[in-house]
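For the sake of transparency, this paper describes our internal protein records without simplification. Because each token names a local backbone shape, the row as a whole describes the fold. One such record is reproduced below, unchanged from the form in which we store it:
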Amino acid sequence: LKCKPMEFQVGDKVMLKVLPWKGVVRFGKRGKLNPSYVGPFKVIGRVGSVAYKLELLEELSRFVEEPIEIMDREVKQLRNSHLPIVMVRWNSRRGPEFTWEREYQFKKKYPHLFTKTAPSSSATL
């Protein structure tokens, strides 16, 4: 028994399903209390067979999260390999947010963050 995709008309109000991403707090709650749906939002157009353009709140539609700086570096030991990772501080309206990212992927996407020497977690005392 398969569910048929729901269809909406321009002007309908819909709830938007949100998923946790990289452990970032998006809507003010954490874990089980984090909402599964936000809205309602007005449908302003149809993009595909089951994709719609929504009239979002200003803070949801224009804000782009960008990494600000590399806070820390570590090398994770995986069975037979070493995986360099970096702790990244992101800009956010809700305050500072931090995530661990793979260094080589992050260096390709944001090379300007690696021009300065970031602190190393492998310093000796």
Remarks:
- The chain has two domains: 13-61, 67-114.
- The radius of gyration is 20 Å.
- Residues 121-125 have pLDDT under 50 and may be disordered.
